[in-house]
TrEMBL record, chains A, B, C, D:
GO term, biological process aspect, one: folic acid biosynthetic process
Annotated protein name in UniProt: Dihydroneopterin aldolase
Name of the gene: mptD
Organism: Natrarchaeobius chitinivorans
Subunit structure: Homotetramer.
UniProt pathway annotation: Cofactor biosynthesis; tetrahydrofolate biosynthesis; 2-amino-4-hydroxy-6-hydroxymethyl-7,8-dihydropteridine diphosphate from 7,8-dihydroneopterin triphosphate: step 3/4
Biological function: Catalyzes the conversion of 7,8-dihydroneopterin (H2Neo) to 6-hydroxymethyl-7,8-dihydropterin (6-HMD).
Catalysis: reaction(s): 7,8-dihydroneopterin = 6-hydroxymethyl-7,8-dihydropterin + glycolaldehyde
Amino acid sequence: MTDETEATDATTPTTAEAACFEAGIKFGSLYHQFAGTPLSLESAASIETAIEEAIENQPHCTDVTVTVQRDALEAELAEATAEYTELTGRFLEVEIVLEYDGCEVHTRMAMEDGYPLMRLEEVRGR
Amino acid sequence: MTDETEATDATTPTTAEAACFEAGIKFGSLYHQFAGTPLSLESAASIETAIEEAIENQPHCTDVTVTVQRDALEAELAEATAEYTELTGRFLEVEIVLEYDGCEVHTRMAMEDGYPLMRLEEVRGR
Amino acid sequence: MTDETEATDATTPTTAEAACFEAGIKFGSLYHQFAGTPLSLESAASIETAIEEAIENQPHCTDVTVTVQRDALEAELAEATAEYTELTGRFLEVEIVLEYDGCEVHTRMAMEDGYPLMRLEEVRGR
Amino acid sequence: MTDETEATDATTPTTAEAACFEAGIKFGSLYHQFAGTPLSLESAASIETAIEEAIENQPHCTDVTVTVQRDALEAELAEATAEYTELTGRFLEVEIVLEYDGCEVHTRMAMEDGYPLMRLEEVRGR
């Protein structure tokens, strides 16, 4: 009998794990909501602010920082001789800090080896 | 022989029709790119600006005006006792002016009978 | 006096122009709803069907044909040594036929000079 | 000196926490990619399959099950006397199983008290 109880307990998520799950949701939301947005050097600042404020609405999000990589954007527009392109991971750096039930989670998305990598950096307070 | 040529000509889009097609593309883009964005009274202003500047990047777009309907938003948040909701057509009024090859098209999205209706209002210069 | 009336009349959209506006909405919707979807050779068929059936729900849409360009997809995956990528215009060919108030509009999206170009091809019945 | 090392260690994510972060990313992606898709009873089956296959492309995803809630959809369409609506959380039940470095995570999204709730259910193998 107690075996079954213990087996169940052993799979119950900890507070820190739940906090990390919440942090992942915010990253997935941010990326798939805004990827594809028409983007130029002129509109970069307004999309940064809008993404930050939109995602900060979500539960447990204490701080969101979005930086459009102007150098990468400028290089792409120069090569394509275009005035705008679509927002995608290679133009974005994102930091999200989330607090969930006393546990603070720091996460970050940046380019690594040519891919936008979402990474869990620190879990504090567990 | 000439019949075939004439038949082809008769189906070739006019400049004004092409302009109206372009205007429709902008409306569909705007709606399906940004619908679903987490939205609160605090973040309403930044998403308005970001949508305007993003869509103005697109070819032929001369002016985009986006207004989040604060009254409708406030009413929904009060009823749901929530701090944010998702951006959807009932919180949006949009005007887009587009110029294509000398033809100016005015379009508008607003609620009508409970549905967000996208409407072609004026075609000038044809 | 009559001048003013005539000026107003002169800017009222024709049925064919309204049909072209509707066709544009469908293209913008399709592109910005589904761009960014994780895509592999294995999932290409199911996303084609889902896009077709989703857009055919929209008013006036009589036929939507979506073809994922397997060759372009395979080439990209081989170069990146990845198993999936994101759906974007260079992997898509789309044809939409729309009927609006007796007017039939044929439209198409395909790559041209390295860009996905949405084009109004024929307007019949005006 | 060792204090600093220990402090760093204490905040380093565990494998299970990283697995939960990955699971959250998938849920956020799924929701914000497909919310807003035109949806009817006829197109429900194809969007279920397309979402499952698209998200299963993502790293570490072993199983994705998507069920459109036909009853809720039918009720909404009947009330609105419309033939389609937009895909949103209240029409979706989703289960995602993810395996990350020997750790298996079970997650689920379903309606609770009128809200679509994403929940971490079990963490196995830690």
